[in-house]
Specification:
The N and C termini lie far apart (62 Å). A hairpin with a 5-residue loop joins strand 19 and strand 20. The chain has two helices and 20 strands. The radius of gyration is 28 Å and the shape is elongated. 25% of the residues are buried. The longest helix is centred in the middle third of the chain and has 35 residues. The protein has a five-stranded mixed beta sheet, with no helix packed on it. Strands 2, 4, 7, 8 and 10 form a five-stranded mixed beta sheet that branches. With 298 residues, the protein is α+β, with helices and mostly antiparallel strands.
């Protein structure tokens, strides 16, 4: 890690224009680690008593700040995305903190020309789109595999001629694949308002210890908008990998769009045991590993 070279005084005018955003206390016996949202491209202090060490050859997010006793000063840091961060520097024998994560909303402005900022934004947007398309393709292939394989019912809820079934819970990669099934045995079509997953802890009757957290899927595959009379619809939710521990349970709620029918499928507690990961690749056929005590079929 190289020590920062002091840039011309003109560079410090940026800090004067936008003002200081915070005060940092440093000394010569300890290092204050500053972790920025993006890698550091430039940094300067207003006095030689203070130095910020950072990697100039391979830009990194972390900078190491130290200072010697003397006059107060200031620090200006510019990250690779053009955002500038400014703070006031004060020497103190005893430090209040050894590290700090700098939030992006602490930036005092952007020093890049507007055209360059627009170019960077378009580049990041294209990269993000490619990532999303790649993830969606992987989710779709894995979902199709889990949808087609033969599994026994883990849990079922029956009400008003409707049946909500949990057929599979499997790990693959960094995601959890949850296969659900809706069967309409009634004489009225069922329009789906929503299917929502929840992680539930505790007893609803004991509000002090009860928690019900919704789980938002990364991707849904073949989720139906309507289940016709006599039909069965099977679909998949892809969730970030999670495990149930202690008294946590997985709930699935199904609500009718234009009607009052509602089904709530409640899983049993996991007794503190987590689901183990899947090691097989998709090309070899991933196999979900189920925890038998998470759900009890009937």
């Amino acid at each position: 890690m190289k020590l920062v070279q002091y840039l011309p005084v003109l560079f410090l005018s940026t800090a004067a224009t936008y003002g200081q955003s915070d005060t940092l206390y440093v000394n010569d016996t300890h290092v204050l680690s500053l972790i920025f949202p993006k890698p550091i491209s430039r940094a300067v202090t207003g006095h030689a008593n203070y130095t910020l060490g950072y990697n100039q050859e391979t830009p990194e997010r972390i900078g190491l700040l130290q200072g010697n006793q003397g006059d107060d000063s200031n620090l200006l840091v510019v990250t690779e995305d053009g955002l500038a961060y400014s703070c006031y520097l004060v020497y103190r024998k005893q430090l209040e903190e050894s590290h700090r994560f700098v939030a992006i909303d602490e930036a005092i402005g952007n020093v890049l020309p507007e055209k360059r900022r627009d170019k960077m934004a378009r580049k990041e947007k294209r990269g993000s789109l490619r990532d999303r398309m790649s993830d969606s393709l992987q989710y779709r292939k894995a979902s199709q595999y889990f949808l087609e394989r033969n599994t026994t019912v883990l849990k079922a809820k029956r009400k008003d001629g409707m049946v909500l079934r949990l057929r599979d819970v499997a790990y693959f990669g960094k995601e959890t694949y949850i296969v659900l099934e809706i069967e309409n045995k009634s004489n009225i079509d069922f329009e789906v308002d929503f299917v929502q997953l929840f992680k539930v802890h505790g007893n609803p009757q004991k509000k002090s210890s009860y928690q019900k957290l919704s789980l938002e899927p990364l991707y849904s595959y073949k989720k139906p908008s309507i289940v016709k009379v006599g039909h069965v619809e099977r679909f998949v939710f892809v969730q970030p990998k999670f495990a149930l521990s202690g008294k946590e349970r997985l709930w699935v709620e199904l609500q009718e769009k234009r009607g009052s029918r509602k089904l709530v499928l409640k899983g049993s507690s996991n007794n503190g045991r987590a689901w183990p990961p899947v090691t097989q690749s998709l090309s070899n056929g991933p196999k979900g590993v189920l925890e038998p005590k998470v759900f009890i079929s009937h």
